[in-house]
């Protein structure tokens, strides 16, 4: 379906489901990735993006988009992410994210103070290795290249012949799965 922005805006305002579906398919992934850049959780990014689309559909007759639809959608996601960050206590989540993003190595390299600490450290290391190993193949490969070989998103994208957006999305998914699985240890 090749349709210009003016017709898309008119279709949204009139509640045209086909136009709304087109907008959803065209912008959903990019908006999720954009939201993830703010809140560092792909699951939350998807939730925020889905909520924005629900709001757009439920209020299609009231919303007045004066300029670009794309600009409106990205500004809406930006504002929703800022509201989410403002309204939620991110201190614990930030600690978890930071530890998974590179500080987790310190857990394994510190000298344990007791046999219990040693066993706990080994348990964490084993659980982390298992969690990474259980990631989907592409996700696991991208995550390992970034975290263990210190390759940038661009370097990974070039090496695997994928887009940097794909790399960003896969790393976000890996971190989300690791955080979900490892949260009990952190």
Integer average pLDDT = 77
Work out the helicity level: over 70%
- Estimated radius of gyration: 20 Å
Relevant CATH superfamily of the largest domain: Winged helix-like DNA-binding domain superfamily/Winged helix DNA-binding domain
* Low-pLDDT residue spans: 95-120
CATH architecture of the largest domain: Orthogonal Bundle
What is the CA–CA distance across the termini?
48 Å
Q: Helical stretch count?
A: 9
Succession of helices and strands = HHHHHHHHH
CATH topology of the largest domain: Arc Repressor Mutant, subunit A
Number of domains: 2
What general form does the structure show? elongated
Number of distinct beta strands: 0
| CATH class descriptor of the largest domain | Mainly Alpha
SS-based class: mainly alpha
- Largest sheet features: none
Question: What is the strand content?
Answer: under 5%
Describe the model.
The protein is mainly alpha-helical and 186 residues long. The chain has two domains: 5-87, RNA polymerase sigma factor, region 2, helix turn helix motif (Rna Polymerase Sigma Factor, Chain: A), CATH 1.10.1740.10; 91-182, Winged helix-like DNA-binding domain superfamily/Winged helix DNA-binding domain (Arc Repressor Mutant, subunit A, Orthogonal Bundle). 77% of the residues lie in helices and 0% in strands. It is built from nine helices and no strands. It has helices spanning 5-13, 17-39, 42-58, 69-87, 91-109, 115-133, 137-147, 153-160, 164-182. Helix 2 (17-39) runs antiparallel to helix 3 (42-58), helix 2 (17-39) crosses helix 4 (69-87) and helix 6 (115-133) runs antiparallel to helix 9 (164-182). The radius of gyration is 20 Å and the shape is elongated. The model is unreliable at 95-120 (pLDDT under 50).
